[in-house]
Amino acid sequence: MTPTLTTPRLILRAHTTADFAACCTLWADADVTRFIGGRPSTPDETWRRILAYAGHWQLLGYGYFLVTERETGAVIGEFGLADFHRNVIPPFGDTPEAGWVMLPQYQGRGLAREALSAVLAWADQTMPRTVCMIHPDNAPSLKLAAKLGYTEYARGQYGEHTPILLERLAG
């Protein structure tokens, strides 16, 4: 059901129960979660996240991929699309929201761009528009989003946060 995408250096695939420990490591990293919730995730929160990803694929036909290095098999992060029904203003509606997280030791090598490019190329086949929201201080994610065609369309409100809302048209 979940496609497997490959790039020269990466494999993007469905999560499995065997990935739980690696996902716990990813989501327990304070650098990973600094702009996503502001605190490391507990193992039970990580488990619920994995189940939500599986539910996305089952119910919506899209979701998050676990991203591994082709050469080593090491988990480097998660990239994908979701509908979290966020109470963001202005609302996303039913437009898929792109998101990504990557372990710090893999950053700065172009792997995030490679992974997200693969996700968006796959999405472009059926999704005319995707959105994302990024904390204004998250310069690396803002830079990546811009490189892949995302442009700001609003300053949003999400709880007590004011993220930058961006959109990208397929193409």
Question: Would you kindly provide a brief summary of this structure?
Answer:
InterPro entries: Acyl_CoA_acyltransferase, GNAT_dom, N-acetyltransferase. With 171 residues, the chain is α+β, with helices and mostly antiparallel strands.
Question: How is this structure best described in words?
Answer:
Keywords: Transferase. Pfam families: Acetyltransf_3. This is GNAT family N-acetyltransferase. The chain is an alpha+beta fold and 171 residues long. It has one domain (5-127): 3-Layer(aba) Sandwich (Aminopeptidase), CATH 3.40.630.30. It has 5 helices and 10 strands. It has helices spanning 20-28, 30-33, 43-60, 111-123, 139-147; strands at 5-6, 10-13, 64-69, 75-82, 88-89, 97-102, 129-134, 151-155, 157-158, 164-169. It has a 5-stranded antiparallel β-sheet, sandwiched between helices. β3 (64-69) and β4 form a beta hairpin. α1 crosses α3 (43-60). The longest helix has 18 residues, at 43-60. The radius of gyration is 15 Å and the shape is globular.
Give the helix/strand layout.
Layout: E1 5-6, E2 10-13, H1 20-28, H2 30-33, H3 43-60, E3 64-69, E4 75-82, E5 88-89, E6 97-102, H4 111-123, E7 129-134, H5 139-147, E8 151-155, E9 157-158, E10 164-169
Helix pairs in contact: 1-3
Given as residue ranges, the uncertain stretches (5+ residues, pLDDT < 50) are none
Radius of gyration: 15 Å
Task: Indicate the proportion of strand residues.
Answer: 25-35%
Supply the number of helical segments: 5
Number of separate strands: 10
Q: Tell me the domain tally.
A: 1
What is the approximate shape?
Answer: globular
The major β-sheet equals: 5 strands, antiparallel
Oligomer: single chain
Q: Report mean pLDDT, rounded to a whole number.
A: 97
N-end to C-end Cα span: 24 Å
Spatial sequence of strands, sheet with the most strands: 1-2-3-4-6
Q: Roughly what percent helix?
A: 25-40%
Sketch the topology as an H/E string, one letter per element.
EEHHHEEEEHEHEEE
CATH superfamily: Gcn5-related N-acetyltransferase (GNAT)
CATH classification class: Alpha Beta
Assign the CATH topology. Aminopeptidase
What structural class do helix, strand and pairing data support? alpha+beta
CATH architecture: 3-Layer(aba) Sandwich
